[in-house]
Structures are given as structure tokens and as C-alpha cells.
Amino acid sequence: QVQLVESGGGLVQAGDSLRLSCTASGRTFSAYALGWFRQAPGKEREFVAAISRLGLNTDYADSVKGRFTISRNNAKNTVDLQMNGLKPEDTAVYYCAAKLPATSQYNYWGQGTQVTVSS
Question: CA-to-CA distance for 58 and 35, rounded, in angstroms?
């Protein structure tokens, strides 16, 4: 089992950068694939980015490709989301999530961190 805590959200202007971080508890962090999701007001939660257990493979939503970068540090039990060129439509609560590679669903979720991008 893993517990996740996000940090780094805030209020920024369009075009700015922000780095989100997610710290996990547990000694088997490297066993989990990790992802970032977001949910804007009145919208469903959507996938943003994912990274494999050892960080060799990444995947991004088309809406953030080229602007966001996901990375992980298994020695520090952290996964980060570097967000550049932020747009007002990136405004949402961002969630960190973890799953075992054999499963299709993310089983563990953080509490979320708010990102607000003003125009």
C-alpha cells in the first residue's frame, strides 16, 4: 500500500511555470507506475501524464504534450510534474496516483493540489 501527498500548487499567470511534487510513503515505491490527473470545476477527472516503474516510459495527454514533463526519483519516493507554458485551461485540482503495473486502474490517490492559471 502507498500513501501519496501532493504539493506545489498555486496561482500563476498564463505562460508561467509551476512544478508539482508528490511524495509517497512505503518501501515499495518503485513497484508502482505513477500518474498525474486533474479535475476542473464541473468536469470529469482527466489523465495528464504517466510514468513507468523505473521511469523508462512516459505518456502524456495531447493537451499537455510538449509543455509538461513527468519524472520520478525512486530513491526519494517522489514523482514530479513540471508544467511550462501554463494556460488558463490548465486550471484544475491536480492529483497524483499510483497503481501496480498488472492492474488497469489506479488504486491509490493523493488529496490533490489546486493549480489556478490567470489570463
Answer: 9
Cell numbers for 60? 502524456
Closest among 68, 88, 67, 83 to 19, alpha carbons compared: 83
Would you call 67 helix, strand, or coil by DSSP?
coil
User: What does the block give as the cell for 63?
Assistant: 493537451
With a CB cutoff of 8 Å and minimum separation 6, the contacts of 3 are: 24, 25, 26, 108
CA distance 18 to 38: 15
Residues contacting 27, CB < 8 A, separation 6+: none
Tell me the pLDDT tens digit for each residue of 65-104.
999 999 999 999 999 999 999 999 999 999 999 998 888 8
